[in-house]
Write a sequence for this structure.
């Protein structure tokens, strides 16, 4: 059973061009996104310590995202690229979070489902980067990340299904997925993951 949905909107070709034109800046942003993804997984553990059924997977996801950060950082080191002086605010994620409902249970569901959508977007974008890169280690690295992000897209929906009715989960996932497509298409094109 496929747990995530197909994305509502495709990333524009201009985004791939921007990344390929300024790959070092993209790497800086990618590193920041991996750090944030690890922190996000662990924030679920901190905010919902009573959700013991999903804590092991959240920890595993947080560790995996931190390993992705480590791998991106090694790639940056090899290219002589430093981390960005400060992490930029992610307008994409901020706009998505504004669409979350406010009740404790509703917000919990929405945050899990948004995590799924964000991971699916990451998978789509890593696939596009993989396809645009020449043969070599960097291309293989983005192929591996593409597969990992797609898996994370499924994990967060699976977690939501532990606590919420399947019809409610997929109905809300469709709404959030649609919202994500609208947000994505309003973003300025730049050499960044989002």
């Amino acid at each position: 059973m496929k747990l995530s949905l197909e994305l509502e909107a495709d990333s524009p070709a201009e985004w791939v061009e921007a990344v390929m034109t300024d790959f070092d800046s993209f790497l800086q942003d990618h590193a920041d996104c991996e750090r944030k993804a690890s922190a996000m997984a662990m924030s679920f553990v901190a905010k919902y310590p009573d959700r013991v059924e999903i804590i092991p997977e959240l920890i595993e996801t947080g560790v995996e995202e931190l390993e992705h950060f480590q791998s991106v950082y090694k790639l940056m080191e090899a290219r002589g690229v430093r981390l960005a002086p400060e992490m930029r605010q992610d307008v994409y994620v901020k706009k998505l979070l504004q669409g979350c409902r406010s009740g404790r249970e509703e917000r919990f569901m929405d945050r899990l489902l948004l995590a799924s959508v964000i991971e699916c977007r990451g998978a789509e974008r890593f696939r596009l980067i993989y396809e645009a890169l020449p043969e070599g280690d960097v291309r293989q690295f983005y192929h591996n990340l593409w597969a990992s992000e797609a898996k994370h897209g499924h994990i967060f929906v699976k977690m939501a299904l532990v606590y919420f009715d399947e019809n409610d989960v997929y109905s809300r996932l469709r709404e959030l997925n649609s919202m994500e497509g609208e947000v994505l298409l309003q973003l300025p094109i730049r050499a960044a993951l989002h």
Observations:
- The radius of gyration is 16 Å.
